[in-house]
Design goal:
Arc Repressor Mutant, subunit A, DNA-binding, about 140 residues, repressor (chains A, B), alpha+beta, Dna Ligase, domain 1, globular, three-stranded mixed beta sheet, 2 domains, transcription (chains A, B), three-stranded antiparallel beta sheet, homodimer
Chain lengths: ~140, ~140
DNA sequence: GTCTTTTCTGGAGTGAGTCAAGTTAACGAA
DNA sequence: TTCGTTAACTTGACTCACTCCAGAAAAGAC
């Protein structure tokens, strides 16, 4: 787990100012992957005390823009953030409880990046979301 | 292009009641693929006159649930609907203008459905979204 | 034609996220 | 160290897609 000074280095590397809210948000997302904005606000406030929700929204946007965080938003869910960036990985989402897990790319480094007919689009990323049922919900459904 | 009686047959096939708003919504989505709810409401009102937005939301949900329509919502966009259901196809989304195009599956009928490590999830669908720049935006960017 | 059930209307409400104006603090330069 | 600039934070109002609710209307079964 990265330390506060690691986070500081990451911020400086992205030429962003180092502030307590930013460190706290970065840390919260590292310890709570796939957390939604509300939970992040909660965690940040536990560590720092009062922080405006607006600040957290701003920080999340700044960090996402700088490539330090990645924003994901599966259908029917609010925005979630994760700290694992730079590798091409995807997600499985549980239809029943909304749980999210990371999945490494099925077909090498850049899977499915070739669309059969790209309609002239210049494609730079392929995002894959697997939909299914998580182990907990599967067993819960069986026993009912 | 399907006719009103085709739509009627589709509704009956899904054991849904046949009403003017439903026919109109079905027709609107067929003629305007990837339209958002607001545009659909607009098209429906052009054809039918006054229809409440609530009715359109209800109809869209009923038709989506019955499998007659498919709901897609790429990040940063509101919900959109398309009438092409039952075949496993995906979408390219333009980062700059939000345009959406259909893309057939790159790797056969069910692409990438095998995650390398599924964490015990029972996966039933793989959704792929390609991100890029559409032809219009590409040429616009070059000329500027 | 009458009855039951589903659908539609109109209006109020919810909640994630944004906008705007003013204050505060980070950090490079003097 | 202090100063000034500029980015970041606070507060609070606001937007907008979407939902909930209660009553009215219409579709389909008998």
């Amino acid at each position: 787990m990265p330390t506060a000074s690691d986070f500081e280095r990451m911020l400086r590397g992205a030429s962003l100012r180092v502030t307590a809210p930013r460190i706290a948000v970065l840390s919260a997302v590292h310890t709570h992957p796939h957390a939604d904005t509300d939970s992040i606000i909660g965690v940040v406030r536990q560590n720092l005390g009062a922080v405006s929700h607006q600040a957290v929204y701003d920080v999340l946007r700044a960090l996402t823009g700088a490539g330090l965080l990645r924003r994901i938003e599966p259908q029917g869910s609010v925005a979630r953030y994760e700290a694992r960036v730079g590798d091409n990985h995807h997600h499985v989402v549980c239809r029943s409880c909304g749980a999210i897990s990371d999945v490494d790319c099925a077909v090498g480094a850049a899977p499915c990046l070739d669309a059969s007919d790209d309609h002239g689009f210049v494609i730079d990323e392929a995002e894959v979301i697997y939909w299914g049922t998580c182990p907990e919900c599967t067993t819960a459904a069986k026993s009912s």
